[in-house]
Amino acid sequence: MAKQETPAKGAGKKAAAAAAAPTKKPVRVKKKVARHVPTGIVNVKATFNNTIVSITDLAGNVIAWSSAGKVNFSGSRKSSAFAATVAAQDAAKAAQAVGMKECEVNLNGPGAGRESAVRGILSSGMTVTMIRDKTPVPHNGCRARKRRRV
Q1: Residues in a beta bridge with 54
Q2: Dist. CA 46–CA 119, nearest whole Å
């Protein structure tokens, strides 16, 4: 008589458990819907150290953004007007890829890149319908320091 091979101890249980286990359903990946946004809002935050340009649709969802630091400016060159122009052009090109043609511009902050960011958006081929200054201005400001006694 031929000798039968016996499986290793516990191997039969694992094989039976693997056969009985339900197979996992494949994870469905959402298809990215190609949005077409013809008009939008460009928010320019011009600080003394950097200029940040973010482009949103009319509901406020960010479509594209750029900053002077993102386009490889560093140090004091980040706060220059030229860096703001390049950052605005970079953000506008990304927004034009989604189909944006015209925009409103909201300026915020006292930095050097305010006007040059608007020029950068215009030079990239977008139409600017409105320029609005939203820089916060104090009505009376903070409480002054106490008077110095000598």
Answers
A1: 43, 65
A2: 14
Per-residue tokens: 25: 């359903």
Distance in angstroms (rounded) separating the CA atoms of residues 21 and 42: 54
- Report pLDDT for 27: 85
Contact 53, 44 (CB under 8 A): yes
Cβ neighbours of 130 (radius 10 Å) = 10
Write the DSSP assignment of 14-80 as a string of letters: HHHHHHHSPPPPPPPPPPPP-----EEEEEEEE-SS-EEEEEE-TT--EEEEEETTTTT--GGGGGS
In the block, tokens 């139409």 appear at: 127
d(CA 103, CA 2): 86
Q: Which pLDDT tens digit goes with each residue over 92-150?
A: 999 999 999 999 999 999 999 999 999 999 999 999 999 999 999 989 988 999 999 98
